[in-house]
Amino acid sequence: MYALNVEQLEIGDVKKITPARFGDSRGYFSEVFKDSWFRSNVADVSFLQDNESLSAQPGTVRGLHFQLSPFAQGKLVRCLRGALLDVAVDIRHGSPTYGKWVSAELSPENGSQLWVPAGFAHGFVTLQPDTIISYKVTAPYSAEHDRGVRWNDAEIGIEWPQMDAYVLSDKDNKQPLLSELPAYFQLS
After folding, report:
1. Of 2, 28, 65, 184, which one is the catalytic site residue?
2. Structure confidence by residue, pLDDT tens digits, 74-107
3. Which listed residue, of 79, 90, 123, 137, carries a Cα 20 to 30 Å from 51's Cα?
4. Is 135 among the catalytic positions?
5. Neighbours of 120 (CB within 10 A)
């Protein structure tokens, strides 16, 4: 019964995954994660923790975040309420897609998830009020290893949706540019 559609994005290591829904007059049922399938079809990783955040205002930007080894995180992201544009930026030196980005709109209606492996900066902007995001991570949070890159860095050129205003934390407003990042990750 487990059925998922895996969409290869322009950066091959980032994948959009949409679980099948089996519905009737009551609603639907969907298996949104299965460890053995994920390991065989997406990435052979272990998830250690699930995180959830609520963003009250549309236009809330969180990111672009990543963590350094040994706490580098892969993330499997989904939206439980509202809608968001989820973004991954390749920050692996030596990668042919270094500094490039991909995105996917995530919402409860489309049921899609985005796999963002370690070596990518991750962020999102909310498109609706009271958006709830849930994501699995492959390593726990470590303040000492927490890093970021500026969300609106012109060198990266993310095409964020037009919003009346963007809401960011002070931390995210002060992240360095891509050109200022050391070579934290190398393509292996």
Report:
1. 65
2. 999 999 999 999 999 999 999 999 999 999 999 9
3. 90
4. yes
5. 27
